[in-house]
Specification:
Chain lengths: 122, 111
Protein backbone atom coordinates (compact mmCIF):
# COMPACT_ATOMS: atom_id res chain seq x y z
CA UNK A 1 0.00 0.00 0.00
CA UNK A 2 0.98 3.62 -0.35
CA UNK A 3 3.21 4.94 2.42
CA UNK A 4 4.63 8.41 2.96
CA UNK A 5 7.55 9.41 5.18
CA UNK A 6 8.59 12.95 6.04
CA UNK A 7 12.22 13.84 6.72
CA UNK A 8 14.20 16.97 7.46
CA UNK A 9 15.72 19.06 10.25
CA UNK A 10 13.77 19.19 13.48
CA UNK A 11 15.15 22.59 14.42
CA UNK A 12 15.29 25.69 12.24
CA UNK A 13 16.48 29.16 13.20
CA UNK A 14 14.18 32.18 12.86
CA UNK A 15 14.40 33.92 9.45
CA UNK A 16 15.87 30.79 7.85
CA UNK A 17 14.22 28.37 5.41
CA UNK A 18 12.48 25.20 6.54
CA UNK A 19 13.06 22.29 4.17
CA UNK A 20 11.28 18.94 4.31
CA UNK A 21 11.04 15.97 1.99
CA UNK A 22 8.31 13.36 1.68
CA UNK A 23 9.36 9.97 0.33
CA UNK A 24 6.56 7.97 -1.27
CA UNK A 25 6.62 4.17 -1.44
CA UNK A 26 4.15 1.71 -2.88
CA UNK A 27 3.03 4.09 -5.63
CA UNK A 28 4.76 6.01 -8.40
CA UNK A 29 4.18 9.75 -8.11
CA UNK A 30 4.38 9.92 -11.91
CA UNK A 31 1.22 7.81 -12.16
CA UNK A 32 -0.99 10.63 -10.94
CA UNK A 33 -2.62 12.26 -7.92
CA UNK A 34 -1.69 15.46 -6.22
CA UNK A 35 0.63 15.36 -3.18
CA UNK A 36 0.21 17.76 -0.31
CA UNK A 37 1.63 19.25 2.86
CA UNK A 38 -0.42 19.99 5.97
CA UNK A 39 0.81 21.31 9.32
CA UNK A 40 -0.43 21.32 12.89
CA UNK A 41 0.97 23.67 15.55
CA UNK A 42 1.27 22.04 18.98
CA UNK A 43 -2.17 21.70 20.54
CA UNK A 44 -3.89 23.33 17.57
CA UNK A 45 -5.77 22.38 14.42
CA UNK A 46 -4.78 21.46 10.89
CA UNK A 47 -3.67 23.92 8.22
CA UNK A 48 -3.20 23.07 4.55
CA UNK A 49 0.06 24.42 3.12
CA UNK A 50 -0.12 23.40 -0.51
CA UNK A 51 -0.21 20.57 -3.03
CA UNK A 52 1.60 19.57 -6.20
CA UNK A 53 0.83 17.36 -9.20
CA UNK A 54 3.50 15.11 -10.72
CA UNK A 55 3.72 17.54 -13.63
CA UNK A 56 4.71 20.30 -11.22
CA UNK A 57 1.39 22.14 -11.13
CA UNK A 58 0.85 23.62 -7.69
CA UNK A 59 -1.83 25.02 -5.42
CA UNK A 60 -0.84 26.99 -2.33
CA UNK A 61 -2.60 28.31 0.76
CA UNK A 62 -3.01 32.03 -0.01
CA UNK A 63 -1.87 32.97 3.50
CA UNK A 64 1.46 31.16 3.01
CA UNK A 65 1.93 31.47 -0.73
CA UNK A 66 4.59 34.18 -0.60
CA UNK A 67 6.87 31.97 1.50
CA UNK A 68 6.13 28.46 0.20
CA UNK A 69 7.66 26.40 -2.58
CA UNK A 70 6.62 22.81 -3.21
CA UNK A 71 8.53 20.75 -5.74
CA UNK A 72 8.48 17.18 -6.99
CA UNK A 73 11.28 14.79 -7.96
CA UNK A 74 9.72 11.91 -9.85
CA UNK A 75 13.09 10.17 -10.28
CA UNK A 76 13.34 9.80 -6.50
CA UNK A 77 9.58 9.41 -6.03
CA UNK A 78 9.47 12.23 -3.53
CA UNK A 79 8.23 15.77 -3.14
CA UNK A 80 9.54 18.61 -1.03
CA UNK A 81 8.49 21.67 0.94
CA UNK A 82 10.42 24.88 1.45
CA UNK A 83 9.07 27.57 3.76
CA UNK A 84 11.14 30.72 3.95
CA UNK A 85 11.57 33.42 6.59
CA UNK A 86 10.26 31.21 9.36
CA UNK A 87 9.21 32.46 12.79
CA UNK A 88 8.13 30.73 15.98
CA UNK A 89 4.60 30.67 14.56
CA UNK A 90 5.80 28.10 12.00
CA UNK A 91 6.61 25.61 14.76
CA UNK A 92 4.38 22.63 14.00
CA UNK A 93 4.13 18.99 13.09
CA UNK A 94 4.36 18.85 9.31
CA UNK A 95 2.50 16.08 7.50
CA UNK A 96 2.66 14.99 3.89
CA UNK A 97 -0.25 13.18 2.27
CA UNK A 98 -1.65 12.05 -1.04
CA UNK A 99 -4.22 14.61 -2.14
CA UNK A 100 -7.08 13.14 -4.14
CA UNK A 101 -8.83 15.26 -6.76
CA UNK A 102 -12.53 14.54 -7.24
CA UNK A 103 -15.72 16.36 -8.14
CA UNK A 104 -13.70 19.05 -9.90
CA UNK A 105 -11.59 20.09 -6.92
CA UNK A 106 -8.70 18.97 -4.79
CA UNK A 107 -10.48 16.89 -2.25
CA UNK A 108 -9.43 14.44 0.45
CA UNK A 109 -6.03 13.53 1.89
CA UNK A 110 -5.30 9.81 2.10
CA UNK A 111 -3.00 8.36 3.27
CA UNK A 112 -0.94 10.59 5.56
CA UNK A 113 2.65 10.35 6.66
CA UNK A 114 3.39 10.03 10.37
CA UNK A 115 4.43 13.68 10.60
CA UNK A 116 7.61 15.40 11.71
CA UNK A 117 7.94 18.10 14.34
CA UNK A 118 9.79 21.21 13.25
CA UNK A 119 10.68 23.74 15.92
CA UNK A 120 11.69 27.27 15.01
CA UNK A 121 14.07 28.59 17.64
CA UNK A 122 17.46 30.19 17.92
CA UNK B 1 -10.20 31.47 13.46
CA UNK B 2 -11.02 28.54 11.20
CA UNK B 3 -13.07 28.97 8.03
CA UNK B 4 -15.21 25.96 8.96
CA UNK B 5 -16.82 26.04 12.40
CA UNK B 6 -16.92 23.00 14.66
CA UNK B 7 -17.79 22.73 18.34
CA UNK B 8 -14.54 22.46 20.31
CA UNK B 9 -15.77 19.49 22.30
CA UNK B 10 -18.34 16.71 22.35
CA UNK B 11 -18.95 13.78 24.63
CA UNK B 12 -20.99 10.65 25.03
CA UNK B 13 -21.18 7.40 26.91
CA UNK B 14 -20.42 3.98 25.41
CA UNK B 15 -23.17 2.84 23.09
CA UNK B 16 -24.57 6.31 22.62
CA UNK B 17 -24.93 8.19 19.33
CA UNK B 18 -23.11 11.50 19.00
CA UNK B 19 -23.02 14.04 16.20
CA UNK B 20 -20.41 16.65 15.37
CA UNK B 21 -21.40 19.63 13.26
CA UNK B 22 -19.37 21.57 10.71
CA UNK B 23 -20.64 24.91 9.48
CA UNK B 24 -19.31 26.72 6.44
CA UNK B 25 -20.45 28.99 3.64
CA UNK B 26 -21.53 28.98 0.02
CA UNK B 27 -17.91 29.07 -1.19
CA UNK B 28 -16.90 25.88 0.58
CA UNK B 29 -19.44 23.41 1.98
CA UNK B 30 -22.24 24.99 -0.03
CA UNK B 31 -20.56 24.16 -3.33
CA UNK B 32 -18.08 21.35 -2.61
CA UNK B 33 -17.94 18.02 -0.85
CA UNK B 34 -16.93 17.56 2.79
CA UNK B 35 -14.35 15.21 4.21
CA UNK B 36 -13.79 14.14 7.80
CA UNK B 37 -10.60 13.08 9.53
CA UNK B 38 -10.04 11.28 12.81
CA UNK B 39 -6.89 11.97 14.81
CA UNK B 40 -6.24 9.58 17.65
CA UNK B 41 -3.98 10.89 20.43
CA UNK B 42 -0.37 11.21 19.30
CA UNK B 43 -1.01 10.00 15.77
CA UNK B 44 -1.45 11.43 12.28
CA UNK B 45 -4.95 12.22 11.03
CA UNK B 46 -6.73 9.46 9.17
CA UNK B 47 -9.43 9.82 6.51
CA UNK B 48 -12.76 8.86 8.04
CA UNK B 49 -15.42 10.09 5.58
CA UNK B 50 -14.95 11.44 2.06
CA UNK B 51 -17.33 13.01 -0.46
CA UNK B 52 -19.83 13.90 2.28
CA UNK B 53 -20.88 10.38 3.18
CA UNK B 54 -18.48 7.77 1.81
CA UNK B 55 -16.47 5.51 4.10
CA UNK B 56 -13.01 4.32 3.10
CA UNK B 57 -12.40 0.62 3.31
CA UNK B 58 -11.88 -0.42 6.92
CA UNK B 59 -13.90 2.37 8.53
CA UNK B 60 -16.76 0.88 10.56
CA UNK B 61 -20.31 1.68 9.46
CA UNK B 62 -20.86 3.22 12.90
CA UNK B 63 -19.41 6.35 11.30
CA UNK B 64 -21.60 8.27 8.87
CA UNK B 65 -21.53 11.68 7.25
CA UNK B 66 -24.15 13.99 5.82
CA UNK B 67 -24.37 17.43 4.25
CA UNK B 68 -27.16 19.93 3.87
CA UNK B 69 -26.68 23.38 2.41
CA UNK B 70 -23.67 25.00 4.03
CA UNK B 71 -23.42 22.56 6.94
CA UNK B 72 -22.23 19.01 7.41
CA UNK B 73 -22.39 16.48 10.21
CA UNK B 74 -20.48 13.46 11.37
CA UNK B 75 -22.45 10.88 13.34
CA UNK B 76 -20.97 8.13 15.43
CA UNK B 77 -23.35 5.46 16.65
CA UNK B 78 -22.62 2.74 19.19
CA UNK B 79 -19.89 4.92 20.69
CA UNK B 80 -16.79 3.04 21.80
CA UNK B 81 -13.89 4.08 24.02
CA UNK B 82 -11.51 3.86 21.07
CA UNK B 83 -13.50 6.60 19.31
CA UNK B 84 -12.04 9.14 21.72
CA UNK B 85 -10.12 11.42 19.35
CA UNK B 86 -10.09 14.76 17.59
CA UNK B 87 -12.30 15.06 14.52
CA UNK B 88 -11.77 17.57 11.72
CA UNK B 89 -13.98 18.51 8.79
CA UNK B 90 -12.49 19.90 5.59
CA UNK B 91 -13.59 21.15 2.21
CA UNK B 92 -12.33 22.98 -0.84
CA UNK B 93 -13.06 26.71 -0.79
CA UNK B 94 -13.66 28.39 -4.14
CA UNK B 95 -12.61 31.88 -3.00
CA UNK B 96 -9.65 33.53 -4.77
CA UNK B 97 -7.57 30.76 -6.39
CA UNK B 98 -9.07 28.08 -4.20
CA UNK B 99 -7.80 26.46 -1.06
CA UNK B 100 -8.42 23.60 1.34
CA UNK B 101 -10.06 24.79 4.54
CA UNK B 102 -10.34 22.84 7.78
CA UNK B 103 -12.59 23.12 10.79
CA UNK B 104 -10.94 23.87 14.11
CA UNK B 105 -11.49 20.32 15.30
CA UNK B 106 -13.76 18.69 17.85
CA UNK B 107 -12.35 16.73 20.75
CA UNK B 108 -14.62 13.78 21.43
CA UNK B 109 -14.56 12.37 24.95
CA UNK B 110 -16.07 8.99 25.75
CA UNK B 111 -17.27 9.20 29.34
Amino acid sequence: QVQLQESGPGLVKPSETLSLTCAVSGYSISSGYYWGWIRQPPGKGLEWIGSIYHSGSTYYNPSLKSRVTISVDTSKNQFSLKLSSVTAADTAVYYCARHVAAAGTLNWFDPWGQGTLVTVSS
Amino acid sequence: QSVLTQPPSASGTPGQRVTISCSGSSSNIGSNTVNWYQQLPGTAPKLLIYSNNQRPSGVPDRFSGSKSGTSASLAISGLQSEDEADYYCAAWDDSLNGEVVFGGGTKLTVL
